Amino acid sequence: MKTIKFECDDRYEAEKLAGLVSMQKDNTVWVAGVAASVGSEVVIQLKDRSSHAVVLKDKETAGRLKSLLVDMVKGKIRIHSSAFSGSLAEIILDD
After folding, report:
1. Closest Cα partner for 34 from 43, 26, 25, 21?
2. For 17-38, how does the pLDDT look when each residue is reduced to its tens digit (9 = 90+)?
3. Domain that holds residue 72
4. pTM (2 d.p.)
5. 7-10: long-range contacts (C-beta < 8 A, 24 or more apart)?
6. Which residues, 6 or more positions from 25, have their beta carbon under 8 angstroms from its beta carbon?
7. Which of 5, 29, 48, 75 gets the most CB atoms within 10 Å of its CB?
8. Count of domains in the chain?
């Protein structure tokens, strides 16, 4: 398993990101795609069509998150779990 870390703007944003990409009971993730990416902010669209913005540390970190989410939606990678500590969100990927 591979762990990818994302530095968020604060603890609230890290908790939000970890929750949005968490594994559900049916072993799926509710993320449907990336609605937008502006500066250090990524807007994540869920399968229920709602959108949620996550503010990251900087533009480069936002770009990494956007790329990871796009790859996940395309089926190139699979998220195993997620967690957060302080302003740091961790996404653990299946091998």
Report:
1. 43
2. 999 999 999 989 999 999 999 9
3. 2-93
4. 0.96
5. 7/56, 7/57, 7/58, 7/61, 7/87, 7/88, 8/54, 8/55, 8/56, 8/57, 8/84, 8/87, 8/88, 8/89, 9/40, 9/55, 9/56, 9/57, 9/87, 10/55, 10/87
6. none
7. 29
8. 1
Token pair belonging to 67: 């790329």
Among all chains, which residue has been given the structure tokens 């594994």? 23
Other CB atoms within 10 A of residue 74 CB:
9
- How confident is the model at residue 95, as a pLDDT? 85
One-letter amino acid for residue 88 of the chain: L
